[in-house]
Amino acid sequence: MAAKVFQNLIGGEWVDSRSGRTHENHNPADTRDVVGIFPHSDSRDVDDAVSAAKQAFAKWRLVPAPRRAEVLYRAARLLEERKEEYARDMTREMGKVLKETRGDVQEAIDTFYFMAGEGRRLYGFTTPSELPNKSAMAIRMPVGVCGMITPWNFPMAIPSWKLLPAIVCGNTCVIKPAEDTPLSTLNLVRTLMDAGLPKGVINIVFGSGPDVGTPIVRHPDVRAISFTGSSEVGRIIGTMSAEQYKPCSLEMGGKNALIVLDDANLDLTVDGILWGAFGTTGQRCTAASRVIATKPIYRQLAEKVAARAKSLKIGSGLDESVEVGPQINQSQVETTEKYVAVGKAEGAKVLVGGSRLKSGGYEHGFFHEPTVFVDVDNQMRIAQEEIFGPVLSMVACDSFDQAIDYSNSVVYGLSTAIYTRDVNKAYRAMRDLHAGITYVNAPTIGAEVHLPFGGVKSTGNGHREGGIGAIDFYTQWKAVYVDYSDRLQRAQIDTGE
Length: 497
Fold this sequence. Notes:
CATH architecture of the largest domain: 3-Layer(aba) Sandwich
Number of strands: 23
Low-confidence stretches: none
Strand content: 15-25%
Protein name: Aldehyde dehydrogenase family protein
CATH class of the largest domain: Alpha Beta
Helix content: 25-40%
InterPro entries: Ald_DH/histidinol_DH (IPR016161), Ald_DH_C (IPR016163), Ald_DH_CS_CYS (IPR016160), Ald_DH_CS_GLU (IPR029510), Ald_DH_N (IPR016162), Aldehyde_DH_dom (IPR015590)
Active site: 251
Number of domains: 2
Largest sheet: 7 strands, mixed
Family: Belongs to the aldehyde dehydrogenase family.
Domain Aldehyde dehydrogenase: 14-480
């Protein structure tokens, strides 16, 4: 059967790219399977999409926010009906196992409901004026056309974090999905269109970062940028945005530590480590890529983790019994191989795993064994640099204080976790871990949509996705003064009269 051909969404119409070029979207578990053929667009398509979004903004911003929210409510119900279909599409194009892609779709559903609720809030505030017969207030205003650039690891959840708060606030959008996972973003936006979203409010332009992402960021009519991806690319996008004085939200890399103290429940801890390190095949910005354990329990914990990691079933995520799917593409699995070699050269020991799987049914996919390193020094590259693959580095420490220092020693600051029964140390960890997220007796993954998501240091630039943080980014404050004194009153001058 011939692969399905997809188009850009511009002004509510499905159109071919101006260049006529296309690229194939392959199943990473079996690259012989072509999921679809998508446009390879360029700056001309971006210009068309931004023009459509700008035109739609003139009307959409005037739609009362509760009415905008009703579209999200309808879309949420549609997405619930389509959950299984879209989860299977996502597993086929991205690789992660079905229970995870169902969770990805569910996260989008949750975001729909949460952000729809915000349509009846979007609170501003009133405050007393310093002058008589005068009122003062602050209200939220939409930003305008917003550009979004999204990654492949959560190809429906992360676009929902960006698109839904933006449109409920009255903005319009141009989004570039990751080249590896275009279908899931298309499915999300199609659901909104089927729920009655007006034409041009959301526009999709498929293509590469240089050909589509850069023109979105540089376009003068795009008034805000939201990016999720690597810190290296984020720095470039942040610089380009700053040159044009446009707000830019960056959510980037992580090298997240899971701390284990002597008194931890080790069986619970092992469950958390396995899920945190090898869920999504380690391809999460929040993945638990480091375990920092106190020396009395370090060896026992490492042996338990290795035994469980060795037993994980690897294969196509469409098989319900599989626990670890493929990596997303050739480049990503080669990066994992490179870091395994680096770890060995640095003197760390591979306790389990360490190899790419190339035979026995794995010939046509990007599979790598879950890998556990022990005897890892905290200064080794495998303990400091983001790998984005199924590689776990286990570091021994002498004390709670040293564990905190080790966790904070990396350039990133996204997610952290601690396993302990000592409530005093748990609260100290919550205070002293330099990160945007801290979990107690749970792994480094599992964010919920109504809380702020994001990090510090090289992980982010101060903005947050999820919760009210997203509303803050997609609105601008306007101060409003109403003088009903029927005479000129001069602030700071006439206050003494």
